[in-house]
Amino acid sequence: MKIKYKKIVSFVWYGGAWIFSAILCSITVFMLGSYYYTGSPTGFFKLVRTFSIVESRYAGEIDKEKLLNGALEGIVAKLSDKHSIYLDGDNYASFANQTSASYAGVGIYLGKNDQGPFVVEVVDDSPAKEAGIQRGDVIIAIDGKPANEMDIEQIAQDIRGPVGSTVTLVLSHKGTEYTKELVRSQIQLKTVGGQLIPGTDIGYIRVAIFSEKTGKEFTDLYQSLRQQGMGKMILDLRNNPGGLVDQAVTVSSNFVPPHSTIVSYVDRSGKETDFTADGTVDRIPMVVLINENTASAAEIVAGAVQDLKIGTIVGVKSYGKGTVQGIYPIDEGNAVKLTVAKYKTANGRFIDGVGIEPDVVVPLQANDTTDKQFEKAYEILNQ
């Protein structure tokens, strides 16, 4: 019995030494990591200590997952960059679907002007269409949160969500406020549409967003219209929030000169990466329509047309989003969207916070009865 006792004590002692060593090693790594990120060996300990105090002292109920997500959101929020955000759960899934041709939502395209966020277009056979929401309606609140305090990205993210879930929108139609509770459904998008204007050789093509299928959709429609006799083109990028840059390059290949650099990325170290379009020698006169909600990849296309002098830009100054974001998964359900570079247009212009100035300025109000920007584009191509 005595021998057994010694063996047990010996085992426990060595086990205790191993556990202590592991803890000591973890603390050392933790301190080194903390020093690397904060310049202080106690930086991360403050975070852990705060969690510990809240967990042991707070009088109410605690949702640990919610606390953790809040802390992670705060880290990214302190960058003071509205395009860098922490994506958790449904927000991650929703963002991942933004560049897909299918997403869970209510079926509206968004814009923003002096009156605030508004409905640019309503998708057919969508919850929004069935609820009677109309083009031009102003969005006042989303689930009780004031919409005018959010940017377009956040508004879109809040309106989207899992299929079958609900979202409550407060809107205004011609000054009359109304409320709609909508059940989200799967929305199938066609990101490109257009036609040959009857009795003319002018084609009209609208690109709503640059998603994973936009390049092919645009090329198919462009070639079809060319076969029908299109000799001039109006490219409508108004209220296009951007999307995938490779799709913007593919779209541009249909009308820019061969081997044209469309955009260049400049990362934090100053390294530049060029994106070049195959291009074509078979080019036609064109006008590009832009407005204050034309952003990101859409500005890349408009900037290329302007810089390469292959068309006329009509409308008002674009949004001015000239930064590039990367998505970095943390685990299966969470990620960080982080600004990793700025981009330059074909001629080397940085447009972040500046935007694209149109060659011909034509303002357009939501209550205008005619599309003056389209009319100006049509006039230019008929000169």
Quick overview:
By secondary structure, the protein is an alpha+beta fold. It contains ten helices and 19 strands. It has a six-stranded mixed beta sheet, sandwiched between helices. Strands 1, 13, 14, 17 and 18 form a five-stranded antiparallel beta sheet that branches. The protein has a four-stranded antiparallel beta sheet with strand order 6-5-7-8, with helices on one face.
Task: Describe the protein.
- The structure is a single chain.
- A hairpin with a 2-residue loop joins strand 7 (166-173) and strand 8 (176-183).
- The protein folds into three domains: 2-62, no CATH class; 102-188, Pdz3 Domain (Roll), CATH 2.30.42.10; 192-381, 2-enoyl-CoA Hydratase, Chain A, domain 1 (Alpha-Beta Complex), CATH 3.90.226.
- The protein has helices at 2-38, 43-57, 64-77, 89-97, 127-130, 152-159, 214-227, 245-252, 297-307, 372-381; strands at residues 85-88, 102-105, 108-113, 116-122, 138-142, 145-146, 166-173, 176-183, 185-188, 192-196, 202-207, 232-236, 260-267, 272-277, 286-290, 312-315, 323-329, 334-345, 360-361.
- It has a six-stranded mixed sheet with strand order 10-11-12-15-16-19, sandwiched between helices.
- The protein is of the alpha+beta class.
- The chain is built from ten helices and 19 strands.
